[in-house]
Amino acid sequence: MSSDFTVTFWGTRGSIATPGFRFNCYGGNTTCVEIIAGDARMIFDAGTGIRDLGNKLLGQAQQGAHFSIFFSHTHWDHIQGFPFFTPAYIPNFRIDIYGMRNNAQSVQEMLQGQMQQAYFPVPFEAMQAQIHFHELTGPIQIEQATIHAFGGGHHPGGSTIYRVEFAGRSVVFCTDCELDLMLERDPGEKFPLAPGTPRQFPSDLMEFIRGTDVLIVDCQYTDELYAQRINWGHGSLSTVVALAAQTGARRTFLTHHDPEHDDETVTEIVEAAAQKLAVAQPACTVHGAREGMTISVGD
Ligand SMILES: [Zn+2]
Ligand SMILES: [Zn+2]
What pLDDT is attached to residue 103? Predict the structure, then answer.
């Protein structure tokens, strides 16, 4: 058994892919994260970043490779790469797909729906891999990894937060989640909260994330931009830092970068977050998730 526990970012952009020289550092592909935990190979979301990952996996076709794809939700920036995921067309691959039902439709209906002829020339039925869909209702085990799902992410249509546990360590994947609207607030308190105001998160969310080694979290907005984007479903800097500090997440990786934020702007957001976290919880660190970056969870 392999004891590797790694995270690779294949797509870190939010909302829409952003090709171009201004995005070279953090990348332009939309959300896709690969997590390898021992013999378990998992993919979280199938934004445009999954295309390159699929091409890398093609080399494993001979061994009849198996992997699992988990969906936070089914907005475009999290599913649009799926029709370009080449392993799905190859019979040797076995792919398990997991998600929770958002709105009235299942992940299966949404993935098949985006491959209707009016949207895409190749139908879902052309995918020859052994694809199995699963609706999540509780924790599941894949090889030696345990995956927990938290269905309460605040986002239009809902979003699911995941926690992967392996060999005494863990990763939390928390994207498309408007944490500010999950806070417990006094009635009449000014909203959005000022940067220095204490944040109180719901206890079930705290329990879910507490003590994780790696927290991957949507931090699309500065506090100033968030004030103009309330109800859009995404994280704001001060509240994300408060979550990292209060849960004691050892390393936090900011992701779902705004399509209007070039490399310079994302770096400013990461540096501002690092300054705040160094005061709130000096034992923890914060980083910007960059496309192509692999981290070892135990580091
Ligand atoms: Zn998104
Ligand atoms: Zn979304």
Answer: 67
